[in-house]
Design a protein that fits this description.
Blueprint: E1 10-11, E2 15-19, H1 25-33, H2 36-39, H3 51-66, E3 71-77, E4 86-94, E5 99-106, H4 115-129, E6 135-141, H5 145-153, E7 157-168, E8 171-181, H6 182-191
Parallel strand pairs: 5-6
Antiparallel strand pairs: 1-2, 2-3, 3-4, 4-5, 6-8, 7-8
Helix pairs in contact: 1-3
């Protein structure tokens, strides 16, 4: 399994994705602030969110990339490249077994335009084609129907329920588990009409 991802921007039909830079704090903070009520039920880091968190996240993201632990991307529309509209990340979870995970979110006023599935497809392509994963996993909080629709659209197989997987405030959330194998990726990619994008 490889452990290097190039840091040049990636382009798809509607989006540009690139690693975070320290000057992205303002536009990242704006996107999270605009989406707090929608993100709050699903993500533990939303509790007490402030601009300081945005600064720490981007600092840690740059470090994680340099250490090949995780690869976070800022998601931006091609029509407005200075506007952060969400995150997508890919990271290894088992080098021995060639397994990795992808996570994503899109700011609330930009949902419903296909950005989530398009950005996730870029991260999945990186997982299989650059990092050499055998399997990519998605873990989605039960009740997060929008994220589950993305998993289905991208050809993932539902595997079951992970009980009490993440604690958000004082509540334990179950997560659904989804997977896509390297042998299934070519077909999934073709079904998206994305054979020549997400590079």
């Amino acid at each position: 399994m490889a452990n290097h991802v190039h840091s040049q921007p990636r382009y798809s039909e509607q989006l540009m994705l690139r690693p975070f830079r320290r000057r992205d704090v303002g536009t990242f903070h704006d996107a999270v602030s605009a989406s707090l009520s929608e993100l709050q039920p699903w993500l533990p880091w939303i509790e007490g969110y402030d601009r300081g968190f945005a600064q720490r996240f981007i600092r840690d993201s740059v470090t994680s990339w340099a250490e090949a632990r995780a690869y976070d991307f800022t998601v931006r529309p091609l029509t407005e490249l200075d506007r952060h509209i969400g995150n997508v990340s890919v990271w290894p979870t088992s080098n021995q077994n060639g397994t990795g995970e992808v996570g994503y979110w899109i700011r609330s006023d930009e949902t419903g335009r296909g950005y989530g599935s398009e950005a996730a497809a870029v991260a999945i392509a990186i997982g299989f084609e650059e990092l050499g994963f055998h399997k990519v996993v998605l873990r989605i909080a039960v009740g997060n129907a929008a994220s589950e629709r993305i998993a289905e659209k991208l050809g993932f197989t539902y595997e079951g329920i992970l009980r009490d997987e993440v604690k958000v405030r004082d509540e334990w959330l179950d997560h659904t588990s989804w997977s896509l194998l390297d042998t299934e990726w070519a077909e999934a990619r073709a079904s998206l009409g994305a054979e020549d994008t997400y590079l």
